[in-house]
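Local shape tokens

___
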Amino acid sequence: MFTLPGLDYDYDALNGHISKAIMELHHSKHHQTYVDKLNAAIKDAPELQDKTIEELLRGIDAVPEQVRTAIRNNGGGHYNHSQFWKWMSPEGGHEPTGALADGLKEKYGSFQGFIDEFSGKAANIFGSGWAWLQPDLSITVSPLQDSPLTNSSDNPEPILGLDVWEHAYYLDYFNRRPDYIKAWWDVVNWAEVERRFGESQ
């Protein structure tokens, strides 16, 4: 059975960028619901109960049809959010360093060029979804709770991702998604992103 992961910081630690109210609702209610519904789905499919969340998502087309949609949506929500919390920190923001910084500057012309490209793609996702930075430093997007892992045995895990579902920002920013994205950069945990980038090379 899957469980809700704890956070490395308090709900109010990102205040000024993401409020305590958003963090508490997002983590303890939305993420918990994904976990609960994922566990309910695999309970009806015993052959899936020993699989990791990554294995479930990469092999989603092999999951029994009667639980496939529930596992895709709720398993995706569990995986995505479990990573998302790690990509933020009250000590976040600033700029990355080392090989990651060099790679972003080479690919996008400057760190700001990368920020602009990623922010633009995230802001323009139609409806709910996620924006991702891949280990090759390409930027991709996915709808709903899909991720680069969904139905792919080959795609690497992303090194950074941004949740642009309305529940991630509406209490603070209403319909101003670009304002939320701008504020989010101030809490990005670049040490975690650099670690993942290094391990992926």
Remarks:
- Strands lie at 129-133, 139-143, 160-163.
- DSSP finds eight helices and three strands in the chain.
- The two ends are 32 Å apart (CA to CA).
